[in-house]
Write a structure and sequence with these properties.
Elements (H helix, E strand, L loop, with lengths): L12 H20 L6 H12 L3 E2 H7 L4 H13 L3 E6 L2 E9 L1 H10 L2 H9 L3 H21 L5 H14 L13
Antiparallel strand pairs: 1-3, 2-3
Helix pairs in contact: 1-6, 3-4
Main location: cytoplasm
Subcellular location: Cytoplasm
Protein name: MarR family transcriptional regulator
Length: 177
């Protein structure tokens, strides 16, 4: 790309990412509506289906949200009956987020979402996995560029791979509170 094209709108990564994110997230809306979830709430539920209970601070890091942003999402999920918040038994200052029976049951309904997204995007599972991996690498690079480094994410991925027995697990960065 020549320097004269640096400021063309269609040459901007930020523009392509913003439009793609808006359009792909929009595909989730009709699938999540019958479950009573928004897309951010769905991301929280995905993290809890992987591991529950979780410290609220660790959950915020897992879904890459500020704790102040996560708190109202969790409160709405609690009012919906999908999660409950309790104090950690070892430290009253720490809030734990745990799935309720209804929250665990919701996972079965959510199993239809990934295949529906693949179909809507007309992509194979391998194509989507490759795109996801590229985006995870971009997240890592932007974290490194912002001074966050890769060590926390690398540690989280290694820990998940060891606990799950797989070598291909991808997980957002995060450490315990």
């Amino acid at each position: 790309m020549s320097s004269s094209n640096f400021l063309r709108l269609d040459e901007q990564v930020c523009f392509a990412l913003a439009v793609a994110a808006r359009k792909v997230i929009g595909l989730y809306g009709p699938l999540l509506l019958p479950m009573g979830l928004t897309h951010p709430q769905y991301l929280v539920m995905l993290a809890l289906w992987e591991e529950s209970p979780r410290r609220q601070g660790e959950l915020a890091r897992a879904v890459h949200l500020e704790p102040a942003t996560l708190s109202p999402l969790v409160a709405r999920l609690e009012r919906s009956g999908y999660v409950r918040r309790v104090h950690a038994s070892d430290d009253e200052r720490v809030r734990m987020v745990d799935l309720t029976d209804a929250g665990r049951a919701l996972r079965e309904r959510a199993l239809d979402i990934p295949p529906s997204i693949l179909e809507a995007l007309d992509m194979s599972a391998d194509e989507l996995a490759s795109l996801r991996d590229t985006l995870h690498d971009l997240i890592d690079r932007s974290d490194a560029g912002a001074g966050e480094g890769r060590s926390r994410r690398d540690e989280a991925v290694r820990g998940r791979e060891q606990s799950s027995g797989t070598g291909s697990a991808r997980s957002p960065r995060g450490t315990e509170d």
